[in-house]
């Protein structure tokens, strides 16, 4: 419990920093929010009086710290403002789109793990053999391919030529396969190389020789001892990736027309919808912090030394 409280307390300054950055970004952005809001409400050429009245109404004439304080007090209560585009609550819009992004992210993480961990284990066990050489070449190719190019190639093959998967949209599991594969490709390749390196390090340690001398099967040694000790760097990559993918799937959601929070944010950027941009930064930052907190808790479960304040060997 003390370990959890320490990690939770460490996350609070990070969250405050995220809210400050989100607010500062909107202040530093070009354009006047009052003019943008009037334009979206049908005032194509608002007068100076209308702009001044709207600025006063929105509190834009207050000092910046006062504006930040008002905005932060509402954000803490879950009120991230109202979207200029949809005239709806930004919090509600983000929550409504979150299932699409979460389902896509979960499938992408699953693909990355299924590709990276088993292949990395086999590469380590069969070091410098044919499978290891092919795996390293495949990892290098996957991590080098731009995501948008891979997306176009997958659409050309699976949708245009074979006509097995839909090109875009959301609603069935088939809609998620290609965007999840694109999101998983780079991280899957990193997991392959990381799993291989971490296992090789563990397999060469003295306690592995002791386990082999006891007559334990190699598969049991790898799965029971080596993989467990090698999981810390894997947890770091998976935890960071899952948090980052929720907020970083913008391009993939746009290419495959997935109605997630990334596509909503992109629409907000193009239309200068400042509450949406602020809300997106805060929302994804919060998710990222939560997943990193979950990763830290997994560290504690995997290695009690960390939970007790000790250091890794």
In this structure, how is the largest beta sheet organized? none
Output mean pLDDT.
Answer: 83
Spans where pLDDT lies below 50 across 5 or more residues:
none
Approximately what portion of the residues adopt beta-strand conformation? under 5%
Q: List the secondary-structure elements in sequence, H or E.
A: HHHHHHHHHHHHHHH
Rg, Å, rounded = 24 Å
The number of helices is 15
Structural key phrases:
313 residues, mainly alpha, 15 helices
Describe this structure in words.
This protein is mostly helical and 313 residues long. It has helices spanning 2-28, 33-40, 48-58, 64-76, 90-125, 130-144, 147-161, 173-203, 206-213, 218-229, 231-248, 250-255, 261-270, 274-302, 304-307. 78% of the residues lie in helices and 0% in strands. It has 15 helices and no strands.
Ordered list of secondary-structure elements with their pairings:
Elements: H1 2-28, H2 33-40, H3 48-58, H4 64-76, H5 90-125, H6 130-144, H7 147-161, H8 173-203, H9 206-213, H10 218-229, H11 231-248, H12 250-255, H13 261-270, H14 274-302, H15 304-307
Helix pairs in contact: 1-14, 2-3, 5-6, 5-8, 5-11, 6-8, 7-8, 8-10, 8-11, 11-14, 13-14
Quick overview of this protein structure:
With 313 residues, the protein is an all-alpha fold. It is built from 15 helices and no strands.
